[in-house]
Structure to design on (198 residues):
């Protein structure tokens, strides 16, 4: 979808992606606090100088690039699923399931949520939540606008983003966002009725 593509960034070059993938592997093993640039360079099979050249600004700049790359990868994966949907229910089930599966199986993110929540939560909670929800809304609104009134789509996109964030950060019995049947039950029982009542 052309509008959603506006939210996406260009993919990193091959060598940059190699470093980003190395960062993710290191974080999944040791977390952010214990991961050094030497660890990352070694895992990527590059020199420390090459890593600095690719990501001037050191570890902080590299972590920012990793976060941006992962958000982009996440959105591209979801966009591919949403492009296949042919009705509102399928769109919601595909988007929520893909988001849930990605977030709950992302090794580096799960390590951080379990062992270093202070590195993740400030980026998605409290005041930062508004930034996350604006990005979700900008991405999902064009897809939702195909099935619900355009003026309601941004608010609906934000609401669905809140649902996903809530269940990922605080799992509940009976709702598995990585399971399509579980998500379909949630969508049919609560999400679709909430959207059709507007």
């Amino acid at each position: 979808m052309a509008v959603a593509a506006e939210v996406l960034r260009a993919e990193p070059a091959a060598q940059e992606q190699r470093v980003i993938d190395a960062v993710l592997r290191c974080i999944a093993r040791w977390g952010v606090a214990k991961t050094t640039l030497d660890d990352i360079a070694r895992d990527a099979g590059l020199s420390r100088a090459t890593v600095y050249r690719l990501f001037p600004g050191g570890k902080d700049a590299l972590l920012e690039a990793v976060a941006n790359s992962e958000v982009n990868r996440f959105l591209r994966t979801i966009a591919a699923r949403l492009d296949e949907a042919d009705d509102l229910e399928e769109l919601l089930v595909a988007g929520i399931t893909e988001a849930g599966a990605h977030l709950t199986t992302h090794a580096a993110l799960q390590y951080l949520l379990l062992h270093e929540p202070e590195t993740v939560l400030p980026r998605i909670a409290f005041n930062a939540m508004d930034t996350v929800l604006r990005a979700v809304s900008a991405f999902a609104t064009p897809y939702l606008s195909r099935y619900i009134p355009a003026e309601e789509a941004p608010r609906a996109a934000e609401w669905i983003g809140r649902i996903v964030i809530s269940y990922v950060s605080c799992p509940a019995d009976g709702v598995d966002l990585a399971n399509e049947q579980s998500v379909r039950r949630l969508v049919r029982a609560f999400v679709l009725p909430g959207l059709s009542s507007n």
Observations:
- The chain is about 80% helix and 0% strand.
- The first helix runs from residue 2 to 5.
- Confidence is low (pLDDT under 50) at residues 1-6.
- The CA atoms of residues 24 and 136 lie 23 Å apart.
